[in-house]
Amino acid sequence: MRVTLPHTLTKEEVRRRMHKHAGEIGNFFPAGLARVSTAWPNEDRMSISTEVMGQAIPGGVEIRDHEVVIEMDLPLLLSVMKGPLEAAVKKEAGRLLAP
Hints:
The chain is of the alpha+beta class. It has a single domain (2-96), classed as TATA-Binding Protein (2-Layer Sandwich). Helix content is 26%, strand content 37%. The protein is built from 2 helices and 5 strands. A 5-stranded antiparallel beta sheet has the order 1-5-4-3-2, with helices on one face. The chain is globular, with a radius of gyration of 13 Å.
């Protein structure tokens, strides 16, 4: 799954917001269903490791000058969640990136 969201913020502001709200990523899934951990391999990339129903979902967020790209590699078993998950990511990340 890949979601690209445009923004008008500085990269520094996007980073600040992503650091502040990274703990909310688990809320994109039904309550109690996901365990999420994040790391920052560099200042413009946040790695996301999610476990849902025993299935690992690697992913990440790439901060670019005018957009943020969010990717998650959904396993086949969880592909039925793609539509609702994309909608949640667009809604919540869009709210986070609003000026």
